[in-house]
Amino acid sequence: MAKINFNHLYYFWMIAKEGNLSRAAKKLFISQSALSTQLKKLEDQVNKPLFHREGRILKLTEAGQLTLTYADKMFTLGHELGSMLKGNLPANRTSLKIGVNASLSRNFVGNFIRPILTKDDIELVIDSGNQEELLNRLNTHQLDLVLSNFRPNPNIQFAIKSKLIAKQQMSIVGKPLKENQTFEFAKDLKNYQLLLPGNGTEIRAGFDQVCDAQAVRYNIMAEINDMPALRLLVRDSNCLALLPIVVVQDEIRNNVLAEYCKIPGLFENFYAISLKRHYEPEVVKALLSREAEDILSI
Prior knowledge:
Blueprint: H1 6-18, H2 21-28, H3 32-46, E1 51-54, E2 57-60, H4 62-87, E3 94-101, H5 106-113, E4 122-129, H6 131-139, E5 145-148, E6 160-174, H7 185-188, E7 193-196, H8 202-213, E8 219-223, H9 227-235, E9 240-244, H10 249-253, E10 258-275, H11 282-288, H12 292-296
Parallel strand pairs: 3-4, 3-5, 7-8, 7-9
Antiparallel strand pairs: 1-2, 5-10, 6-9, 6-10
Helix pairs in contact: 1-2, 1-3, 1-4, 2-3
């Protein structure tokens, strides 16, 4: 059999990643009909169908799955080689593209990237989005790293590695108490309006377990899963909020807000997600080697 045409294989790889001819064609800047023709040429060459259709979605056949396994290795190594060679050119700056889950605290992100903010040889790009979108962009090498407060789905279809880079105990936070005023979680929580993560989240489920165990009642003012929005609401209202204090580290430092108490056994986890690869940029290695206490320090 003749050697496989790498252009045809690359087009197949992009279609497989997108799961859709039209999206792949847009990313490749060619027409959908031209892309379909290139795919047909590859299928004719290997004498096997690589996709079957389910409505508008293309699903890989068994031969397609095998082909994708090899294509992933080939093109991932190609991207890594390009990154390595680019990084070794002294005249070039190193580019670092980080995706940030939209619900993640901006303070945490700022703390995480702090060591490279003053480096002239690093070009930093930060994009925000939902987890699925960011992981898809990671898989197509549009991002080098994804920061999230959610553990990635174990059923994800491409090779990633997830590192727990920090965890912080959840706290009840509000406006500073008046002189001689105290706060006892079990006794006083019911006297305040509370800002909480929504039902269905791990943090909310854990908080409700703690409250049930201690027979604590509470009054909900709002349910918010977005940490940046939660920061603004607790700062600008008289409510209390359940959050990790890194979210409001500046407000605590400036005595705008205060930590009332910590919730036992309840933590916010922070993950760094990247592709499994042979070569990892030195700047990423350095960021991931930092101690959690350093990242979370106020």
